Structures are given as C-alpha cells and as structure tokens.
Amino acid sequence: KAGVTQTPRYLIKTRGQQVTLSCSPISGHRSVSWYQQTPGQGLQFLFEYFSETQRNKGNFPGRFSGRQFSNSRSEMNVSTLELGDSALYLCATSRSSGSGNEQFFGPGTRLTVL
Amino acid sequence: AQSVTQLDSQVPVFEEAPVELRCNYSSSVSVYLFWYVQYPNQGLQLLLKYLSGSTLVESINGFEAEFNKSQTSFHLRKPSVHISDTAEYFCAVSENKGNKLTFGGGTRVLVKP
Fold it and tell me: How many CB atoms lie within 10 A of CB A14?
C-alpha cells in the first residue's frame, strides 16, 4: 500500500510570508503528527491530530498551526516566516492515537526561508 | 518532563565490526522506547521498539536493543555492520500522551570498508 505522502517536497519562501504543508496518511491511518527537524534543535514535536481534533501540542509559537480533514489528510501552516523556520518538516501517521503505536514517517518537506 | 540523551553524535566503524549506540532517557512515568533510522534525504523508519515484556528486542536486519529500567537506558547494538547501515539513528520515548515522541539528538553511523 502507498506510504505517507508529503507535498511539496521542497519549498523556498522569504521572511514574512506564510506557507502550507500537506500530509496524506496511509489508508486507514487516522492520527497525523508533525515534527520539525533542524541541525541545531534536532527533531521536535509540533502537534498531533486525530479524528480532526488536536490531541497534543509541542512548544512552538502560535505562528505554527495545523488542521486535519475528514479524510485524515492534514495540513500545517506557518505564518510570518522567520529565518529560523528553515527546516525539514516531517509528518508521521498511525492507525490510532496512543503510546506505543507504530508510526510511519513521510519523506518530509524541506522549507528554506530566505 | 521527559528527555532523551544519545551520548555519541558520530560513530565511525569498520565494516563487519560491532557497533553500539547509547541512549539514556529520563522520565517520571513508564515509557515506551523506540529506535528509528534515517537514511540520507529520507524520512524516519522504525527499527525496533520496546513496549513491555522481554527487555531484549530485535529487528529483522540484525539490530537489537536492551531496555534497562534501573539505568534508564535503551542501547542499540549490531554484532556486524554493513556499508548499508550508514545512516543516522534516533532513540525516542513516548510517555503515554498520544503519539508524541521525544527524540534524542541522533547518532550518525559511518561504516567504512
């Protein structure tokens, strides 16, 4: 079956702009989590959505937001981009929301902010 | 709050030699433990996980990890590495808060011929 799909794969924006990233989960997966990966901070949890509801939120400013649609696809939005938002954004999906679930990661969207 | 420490940021190793990647965590509650691998320009892939039961867990490609509750460790080992094992390895914990994972800083393994 198809894996986790993230679009776009690469994105270049300038400071102050906003960006929307998309994640399509594996069929049957209802939980989608988002992570930011940078060389300095490593992998950091942004938020998790399950059945269109935010279940968990990491320690990121309000400029970072997300949502989930009825078909479980998820989008995350970053407004007023800053240079420090340059990162690889990964989404991970699983069948349910609960510790210990195997999560499947997408290839990521690499965002560069100039 | 939980945290994960991977003591080695880089580990060079010769092909067919053994390797051990160290992972220590801190948490006030019971946790689930994971090792993920990331190949260049790819997402993360689950290598193995500890949920309960036997403290020694194995993957299909020869890796194993042992959960040590008293030392709060979950070290990853492979008795004989291949060139294809060159990748970055991440230890992660989940603390019964949905699917949230807290990751260590990662260990880059470079296998030399």
Answer: 10
